């Protein structure tokens, strides 16, 4: 039963709250938010529970007044994720930033930022919220399944507000100072350090933490702040200025300059190598070029790096005769010893954080909650992400990585192509059915004493919802 497993996992969050009743109200609202229909607001959560005419101010105060921090929730999610799927060579984690449009300028923590959907020839701006997101990559390639990403950090990171046109020189100086100390790169470096500490607490001090990022986090701010036993692989520019280490015992650090990564890719004298990686539903041969032990003065300073150039991967478009090619990838990694196929696999699995962003914003309505205080804006959205992460881990523990017969049957027009893993809609449907149809929610867990069941979690019985 998915609901009972979710409740067993979220019991790990109890020490983060000062009172038992606060914890019960928090879990209640989170379960209802997962299953609510329409816009994911606190009002919609109470509408799902049939308590729309009751006073829910106490539940609002859980996010605006109670004493708890979202970081404590994600620490437990990270530990459960490591127990759900044992890491092999290293612990792969993807980091990226995401935003959500919010039209109200007076809402707390909102700011102007670049619209990612704007065309390349005209940059548009949007008012909204911005977060730095880290996801643990759970690999199921040995079961002919892809990678499943689950959130392990979600931190609000609004840019520093720029002073108005009548600001004094002291105010502008303070703004430039704060801008250097509060940005996405430094927030990402802070999250990496916290994940390393959490992995040590969970008993994985001997496992290397491998962080995969895009080009915006492949810079000096992040590379220079990497803790011990942490490696980073990220995109770089095709015109990056790289050097060989200097030869000899002198004080010189940088030696001969390498050709640009794009020139190396086009150089026929440097042959391509192949590595087998799981990509696009099966294992495929990936062509690459590699130059180990190089220096990047602008971003890596004196730290030795590994340049990996991935050749364009061909793909076919239905109805088109010719082949199309994806863009080549230029990677820099601080991992100088791991097999190249492991590093490339982590880079390919990083894409799973993008569908996770889609599920959070489009499926769970991240950013739709009408909360105004700074504490509520930070806590509620992070709590939604943490709760969905626990739901994913609970489903992996109960059903495995595949979409089994326990899930509702799909419509006939979708049975032509077998789905390999359950979607977000499948997980929400199973959780919703468990909460609605079982008046005691999980009687087996209640009898054994594994789960403490608050009385207000009981919901009125309704008919089962099928997967649409």
Would you write up a description of this structure?
The chain is an alpha+beta fold. It has two domains: 2-17 and 68-401, Transposase Inhibitor Protein From Tn5, Chain A, domain 1 (Alpha-Beta Complex), CATH 3.90.350; 18-67. The chain contains 14 helices and 14 strands. The strands form three sheets. Strands 1, 2, 3, 4, 5, 6, 9, 10, 11 and 14 form a ten-stranded mixed sheet that branches. It has a two-stranded antiparallel ribbon with strand order 7-8. β7 and β8 form a beta hairpin. The radius of gyration is 24 Å and the shape is globular.
The overall number of domains is: 2
CATH topology of the largest domain: Transposase Inhibitor Protein From Tn5, Chain A, domain 1
Number of helices: 14
Superfamily (CATH H level) name of the largest domain: Transposase Inhibitor Protein From Tn5, Chain A, domain 1
Order of SSEs, N→C? HHHHHEEEEHHEHEEEHEEEEEEHHHHH
- The separation of the N and C termini measures 21 Å
In the CATH hierarchy, what is the architecture of the largest domain at level 2? Answer: Alpha-Beta Complex
The mean pLDDT is 86
Per DSSP E runs of 2 or more residues, the count of β-strands stands at 14
Low-confidence stretches: 440-468
Which class do the helix and strand fractions yield? Answer: alpha+beta
**Helix proportion of residues, in percent?**
25-40%
Largest sheet composition = 10 strands, mixed
Strand content: 15-25%
